[in-house]
Amino acid sequence: MAVALTTLTMARMKVAMLRHAFRGTRAQTAGTGAVLGALLAAGTIYLAFTDPDLLAAGYAVWLLGWILGPIFMGGGDETLRPEYFSLLGLSPRRLAAGLLVSAFVGVAPLVSLTALLGLLVAGVRLGVVNALVAVPAMALQLAVFVLLSKVSVAVVGLALRTRPGAIVSGLLNGAILAALGQIWVFFMLFGQTGVPAVVWYLPSGWGLLAVQGEWWALGALALLALLLLGAWAALLSRRAGAARPSTRGRRPMRAATANGAIVAKELRTWSRDLVRNHQLTFALSYGVCFAASPLVLGWDGMLPYAGPIFIVMAAAMTSNLYGTDGTALWLTLMTPSASDVRGRQLAWLSAHAPVAIVLTVAFTAVTGGPWPLILALLPALLGGATGLVPLVSAYGLVPGTDPHRRAGNPLRTSEDDGGLTGLAYLMLALVLVTAVPAGLVAIWYGWAGVAVGVVTGVLCHWGFGLLAERRLRSQGPELLDIMRTGRKPQATMKFRFEQLSKTHKTIAWWCFGFGAIPLVPQGIIAAVFVANDMLRHTWFLATYMPSGLRYPVAAAFVALGLAMYGTGVWVVRPRSPQ
Predict the structure, then answer these.
(1) CB 357 within 8 A of CB 306
(2) DSSP state, 393?
(3) SS3 for 494?
(4) Nearest to 273 by CA among 335, 328, 353, 208
(5) How far is CA 95 from the centre of its chain?
(6) What gap in Å lies between CA 304 and CA 321, rounded to an integer?
(7) How many CB atoms lie within 10 A of CB 350?
(8) What is the spatial distance between Cα 79 and Cα 14, in angstroms, rounded to a whole number?
(9) Where are the transmembrane segments (predicted)?
(10) pLDDT tens profile 439-481
(11) pLDDT at 267 (0 to 100)
């Protein structure tokens, strides 16, 4: 009775909090996510009418999404945190049960339950008994999804409390995401032309097995849910308070200049902040594993790009640099004429450039080239990243939690998961754009691209840093207030998007949502494939063109992507109030 009362109370609390939270920008983000999720769920249900193997593969993808998505997006939904109930004396199992029931209240569980209707469709097609089995199978399958997500986040959060754990967690997560991005390599390795049989025996496939008459799978799902609930309860009991690394035995960092002090402070933060340790090792692991995956097929053509991929991913991971540091900005604002942008740029460069240079030079030497293209991309990307990281963070700041106030889940650096994800994707696109001129010149004219890359990198580093500096000096108090309160002040400019017609809103959404497709895969990546004589490659149109049209087609796609983003910015540009 007590457990039922606890779970009901927590579910009602979750409903009340969501009812008041989904407003404004957050409501728009949630609505967009719900629409995309509904489309994916509809596609999954459609698979139930076509091929059971494809349906099993679809549920495997949903399982991976539940496990990996919260890890890469700030720790998942924590509307109700265990810390809120620490003084109530609830037992770990009772607390876990209540939090589990509340976890089913939200957009993501509802979308996943919709996708699991494919089990009911599969059961109805087989018979009445199978359809009846599908109902508990859906509930148990959703419970396993949610619990696996909670346990994985708790394990990673526990690992992030120690430096070795943060490093190992970053390496593993980066390798997993890179493997998923290069999954075609492993399919080709094993000669797999259809759906692998292993997807049936993953926990995501047990519900479908039960519907098809393998009754043991239903019991296995129930047992797994109970085991995961127990594991989560045990992990919750260890969540109170985060361990801090010891500083004993470390010599103090001394600096003779203001910028030197900022660099020293930032480098110390990079060495001590476990979240930054995780971000750095994640980017490193992702870059190496993504570039090295084709080696299993005997192709080393992607190895030289490990360094550039590492730079782009590292920039995306630190896109909310000021927000992650929290209200520490007041130290700079209270010092007359002070700015920490240049110091942060040098510190970011000091932490990442040596790794990127070693990766790039070593792997390019192993493969024997292409030296002009790689050496052109390296300085352009480094300069673009060091310029864009403070700039994007200053203009698109997402209020973060002060490091000393982070909860038992170290992955949770902000309450605005959508904002963090949007900043990361924006940073990926912008940093890639900074390397386009150098890459194109290197492809067309060889070593001249290196000079263009150096010039581009220096200009991006200096110019974007100057813009970020001006932003902090003119809007520093307002940014500090955003970080302190989590609320944006009343703007002096009106954002046009709210006043646009439906047609113009549609144009803006299409430009921002699909501009990356012609810009990155059909433009930049296709040009790289053409440069490496990788012709007639999957969906990259330029690789199918006659020799004289390949580069012009790729350049046209780059221009189209930039034009789409430019159109979107022009449509929603701010204007002064009338």
Answers:
(1) no
(2) H
(3) strand
(4) 328
(5) 29
(6) 28
(7) 13
(8) 7
(9) 29-49, 55-74, 95-121, 133-160, 172-195, 215-236, 280-299, 305-334, 346-367, 373-398, 419-438, 444-467, 507-531, 551-572
(10) 999 999 999 999 999 999 999 999 999 999 999 888 888 888 8
(11) 87
Numbers of helices and strands, H then E, in the chain: 25, 0
Q: Give the distance from CA 432 to its chain's centroid.
A: 16
**Alpha-carbon gap, residue 258 to 343, rounded angstroms:** 8
Residue for token digits 């346990």? 151
d(C-alpha 305, C-alpha 197), whole Å: 33
Angle 128-159/163-181 helices, nearest 10 degrees? 140
Distance CA 476, CA 470 (A): 9
Region at 74 (left for phi over 0; alpha for psi -120 to 50; beta for the rest): left
Whose CA is closest to 151, among 219, 95, 96, 218?
Answer: 96
CB 407 within 8 A of CB 415: no
Q: Which two tokens stand for residue 302?
A: 């992607």
CA Rg value for the chain: 25
Q: Is the pTM of this model over 0.85?
A: no
Report the distance separating Cα 22 and Cα 3, nearest Å: 28
In whole angstroms, give the CA distance from residue 316 to residue 403. Answer: 19
State residue 532 phi and psi, 5-degree precision: -100, 15
Measured between its terminal Cα atoms, the distance across the chain in Å is 61
DSSP string of 290-353? HHHGGGGGT--TTGGGHHHHHHHHHHHHTTTHHHHHGGGHHHHHTSTT---HHHHHHHHHHHHH
Which residue from 43, 111, 116, 49 is spatially nearest to 77, judged by alpha carbons? 111
Mean pLDDT of the region 64-72: 79
Q: How far is 159 from 149, CA to CA, in rounded Å?
A: 15
Q: Are 393 and 277 contacting, i.e. CB atoms less than 8 angstroms apart?
A: no
d(CA 506, CA 387): 31
Phi, psi of 186 (to 5 degrees): -75, -35
Distances (CA, A) of 426 to 129, 286, 538, 554: 50, 18, 26, 21
Q: Which two tokens stand for residue 366?
A: 């192993």
Length of the chain: 578
